[in-house]
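Q: Hi! First time asking for a complex rather than a single chain. Here are the components, and I think there are two in total. Is that enough to go on?
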Amino acid sequence: MSVSAKSLIQFLCASATVMLLAVVLNFVVDPLQYFRPARLFAAMYSPDSRMQDAGLIQSQRFDTVLMGTSLAIHFRQSDIDHIVGGRSLKLSMTGSTSHEQSFVLNAAMARHPNRVIWQMDDWIFRDAPEIDSDIYLQADLYRRNSKGIASYLFSGAMARESLWILARSVPLFEPVVARLTNGVMFKFSIADVDGINVLRPDFDVAGFYNAQAAVAAFRRITDPVRSAYLAEGYDYDAMVKTFERDVVGLIENNPDVKFDIYFPPYSILQFVAMRDASPATLKIAYDFTAYAFPRLTQFSNVTLHDFRDVKEVSHDLGNYGDVIHHSPAVDLKILSWLAEREYVVDRTAPLASLQRLKAQVEAYRVAR
Amino acid sequence: MLFNSYPFIFLFLPAVLLGYFALGRRGNLAPVIWLALASLAFYSFSNWQFVALLVGSVAFNYVIGLLLIARKLRPSLRFAVLTVGVAGDLLVLGIFKYAGFLAANLNAMFSTGITLHILLPVGISFYTFTQVAFLVDAYGGNVARYALPHYALFVTYFPHLIAGPILHHKDMIPQFERSETKRPDAHLILCGLIIFAIGLFKKTCLADGIQPLVSLAFGPNAPSFDQAWIGALAYTFQLYFDFSGYSDMAIGISLLFGIFLPLNFNSPYKAKNIIDFWRRWHMTLSQFLRDYLYIPLGGNRRGRVLRYVNLMITMLLGGLWHGAAWTFVVWGALHGAYLCINHAWNNFGPKASPRFAPAANLAAGLLTFLSVVIAWVFFRADSMDTALYVLAKMADPTKVAFGKSEMAYALFVAIYAAVAWFAPNTQEIMGYDHESRTVGEKLRGVRMRQLFLYATAAVLAFGILGIQQHSEFIYFRF
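A: Yes, that's all I need. Here is the structure of the assembled complex.
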């Protein structure tokens, strides 16, 4: 055998060895807690919930699941447990579509929760890619098939996180590593499962959530240059079809699970923006509600809450960071309403809250 | 199919390689046909709807070439045949790449209501240019007669098909004809794998690693001064590592088959001026534009003023070649202007005294780099408005965020800059010489230094481990 041939074999074997070492490291440290809850090493969590949820579903004990978008991302699981009851797992994903939410919820159903709290709005039903074409969510990781497991174990990025977690577990390095772990260089920066995507204690709540911020956002989205974004993806027929597939399908397949579905209290400015800058979009939003509410209230395992017409919240612009995102104080109110079954949509009059909302939107005048 | 994907690395490439060398034992033609068919299969994995277009284009150009090479036609008829060939190529390119752009502009000017949504066949810009060069050379009497399989392989050869390097028939077809390339050469395979590993690492670890920072400038949020600069610089390095990584991978894959591809990059951000930059960046495109556009336009032979006009025309069309959008036209115009200024400075500007030469070189290098970064803003932006907005933020130091995150990002960018400016490039590491068809000569015959071997093996492993679900190369869309 020539010298080059020997070197070639050596080269290939060395490469394979490095890859195998990474696989072993990922399997042993298991940053996602995908194979087992963390025992040997300190548990660390990532704010990237589309990835993190695949591990949380496997490693956490829960009987209640919270799902939603950025409007349900800052909840503390401990608050949900304390106010609503049960042992909760937050799986909310920022900017998620109903397709992503339904897919992740479906994976969570394998752990047999008895309750799902689902934050829903018309926005999540806009056109979305098929789950296997979704570049942000690794579907196979949730399916736990060989492709998903291989992509997890053969991931260099995950090996880097594994090394970091390993270093953090050495008492000598722990203080230095903990100080350097800020989420910029290393993704698994959260030490407490209850702290995933909650606002940091030093977050300036009053500086972020205030009437000026809400009005500024209103001006921005109603600016003629940008107002077209309000209508982006709104197509009534497509939304209904997506709703049937993602929501109705999941509810029908899980008759023993109780679904608490709530429509969050947007600021009134969101609807007023549609009214003023994109009335056709507002009509689609109303029509969608007129379809979805009677449909949801048909199911005995669904309790539907509509918080959109809760005037004392939606008209108090100080609650908002823009036209839809509300403060942590409103998060707590939502949990109380869910616990006390307030603002539940009446099965005999499912569109009553929609009529109230329409009247409020019609009457509202924006301060000049 | 992507080079940076598991199916390509672990299935397609080994299968094609085995088939190529197995058929190489039986003759010289069968491996060429095998490689051409494999290239079509490679193309069809993600672009099956355009395989017929590619095959049609190859057949059309081969027939036109045959008429120009083999038939003794009258000069006027020869010119007519060339015109038909080039016009046919440009027409197809125009329909698929520029018709939508033209319609949008007509619509904007005259409210015509015309809207066209035509899918862009991947690699069309590359295989069109390759074949236009072939026809022009055939017309000039500079092409020997080639067999169809060799010509088809020259156009479709999968390492370069999607995003270059832009190949020249005189360079490639004689290599395809050589019987030595059909026998496995452990030295070339090892060197090819190492070059592929470096390219894969550049793509999956470096380019994909810095990609998230680009959104600081070009994302939905309004950037501050520092964020705009970090985003623009991040794109500058992302594009370099992405495209030069792709080119390295193409060169490495080709070496496995015993074929030497031309270099496409030579540390462009080390350039001391814009002329130097274009000798180092996308070198095969620069050579093509020089030989088939700038020189036929007259080059520098008709006085200084016309030289500048020719430079501007060449760079404007070079910009438009990248994409059918005004941002690319402006990018090309900027580089055209830079080149004119550079030539004018060489002719009329003062010469730095030897005492100040190092400082002058440093200043020239920095100015060149900054000019390139500013032009990349147009190259990256979705629209002229976005480009001007980002540039306005880069010019407004009154709003600075520079928090903990920005500091970490700046450090990140600085590391990339250090690699681009101070690290040796792939051909320097591997001693790759396209002209003399040699690579890794220092490594041949003696046992490779263990440290080098293990380090490059680790680079291959990191490159493979860095593969993300789906990460296309930026130049796929051109």
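A: The interface with chain A takes residues 185-187, 189-190, 193-194, 197, 204-205, 404-405, 408-409, 443-448, 453-454, 456-458, 460-462, 464-466, 468-470 of chain B (CB under 8 Å). Let me know if you'd like any chain examined more closely.
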